[in-house]
Amino acid sequence: MRYTSAAIEALIDAFAKLPGVGRKTARRLAMHVLQQPRLEAERLSSALLDAKDLVVRCSICQNVTDRDADPCRICTGKGRDHSVICVVESPVDVLAFEKTAHYKGLYHVLHGVISPLDGIGPDDINIRELLQRLQGEEGGEVKEIVLALNPTVEGETTSLYLSRLISPLGIMVTKIARGIPVGAELEFIDEATLSRAMEGRSTF
Question: What are the tens digits of pLDDT across the range 90-109?
Answer without folding.
Answer: 999 999 999 988 899 999 99
